[in-house]
Amino acid sequence: MAPQRAKARASHPQPQPPPQPSDYETDAQPAVDVPLPPPRSNEELNFSVLRRVYPELLAIEHVTPYAALYTFNLETQQWEKVGVEGSLFICQLTPSPIGAERYCAIIYNRRGLENFYQELTSSDEMEISDPYVILQGDLVYGIWIFADPPPASTANCRVETAAKMMEIADRAKASREAIEPTPQAVEHDEAASSAPMGRQLSLRELFGQQPAPAQPDVLGQLFMKAKQNHNGLG
Question: 3-class secondary structure for 16-46?
Fold first, then answer.
């Protein structure tokens, strides 16, 4: 009878423990410590984002946390907000074909997909009149720059940004004139002086001429109204 009991036990093997997951890959390959990339600064992140949109970007010269864009309506003599608001970047671009330095102003829009982009070529194309930095482009643009009241750290933001934009524009002009041959500069001046009556007015012609005594000071009234409405601009 004993052999029969042994046979019965042999026909019902004992349950085996479940197989353990293989650790072959860990054993086969030595562990390698891959260092994490160093954290990037805000300036590096901003540059990376802007460079995707503007490949000619070389460096960010100045950043203003918040600015809003306006255009000047010649018919109504009023500033009109255009829905472009966000950080203002003053940037250096790749040199021009003749090797001159180039710079631009960019408002990276938080309100929509369309940013503001304008090259800064000369301070002659700019005017500073609180609360706007005025630029001559396809239209007459006014950039309103946010600044907290004193003694906040951003109290001088508007003045500092305006001064930086003028400095950058003059740097671009000086670089261009140092390289540009004199005959071309003369031809440019002659062409500008002989432009047809339908040509675009310069900022100095638009804002710099003094009105006749019998005419109202339209620009003075415009900026006075802008100052009165200053608190509602942002």
Answer: CCCCCCCCHHHHHCCCCCCCCCCCCCHHHHH
Contact (Cβ atoms closer than 8 angstroms) between residue 127 and residue 165? no
Nearest alpha-carbon partner for 102 in 94, 90, 110:
94
The residue among 20 and 63 whose pLDDT is bigger is 63
Identify the CATH class of 45-190.
Answer: mainly beta
Taking the mean position of all CA atoms in its chain, how far away is CA 183?
A: 35
pLDDT tens sequence across 211-232:
433 334 444 444 445 444 444 4
Verify cis geometry, omega within 30 degrees of 0, for the bond prior to 95: no
pTM flag (> 0.85): no
Mean pLDDT over 141-155 rounds to 88
